[in-house]
User: Fold this.
Amino acid sequence: MNQSFVKVFLFCVSMSSAAMAGNGAPSGAHYNLNIIGVSKGKSADMSTNDGHRIFMPLYGTAKILLQEGSEFQVLDANGTDGTAKFQLPNPDPDNDGITNYSVFVRALGKPGGEARVSTCATDPLTGEEVCSTLSTVAVRKSGKSSFTNVTKQLLYIYADLDGDGVEERYPLFDDRLQDYFWSYDNKGLKVLQMRFYEIVTNVN
Assistant:
């Protein structure tokens, strides 16, 4: 059976059967990751820490380096020194715009903070960092906080690398780029909660 047809079929089934919870996220099994903003840097070695949280500066920008692997796992939980590290599967190996899993985020903690997350990588031809023209901004407002599907923003880079005036789409770990990471620009957000679900999203 044609692989593209299978993925489209799975997309229709997944989205129709994934009941949405009251918080805006799908119901069902998921991997949960909390990105926690802290006012003071961490001194402990967290390079072998595989908990479901990453510490980032409460104010300022740091990187979450992304490594391809078969499962979701925190490889370095301390981003207060400038870089943390997170492992996740390849979301779209054939770049057909239909993902193998989806990402939802919501802002938690004291109202007023916000964080911008951009997906970036290095262009091996120029050595320059390239960030997607799409990013996600999570704002902690008062009242109930709901999840938003940010699969397109966090699992792809949209950029015009060949200079033809048209943006190309690069899924995470596409070999046309290298050294993928999330740029995390925090402005007082205490907690950004990320959930990864085994349902597909069509970003076309």
Notes: The longest strand covers residues 129-139. The two ends are 22 Å apart (CA to CA).
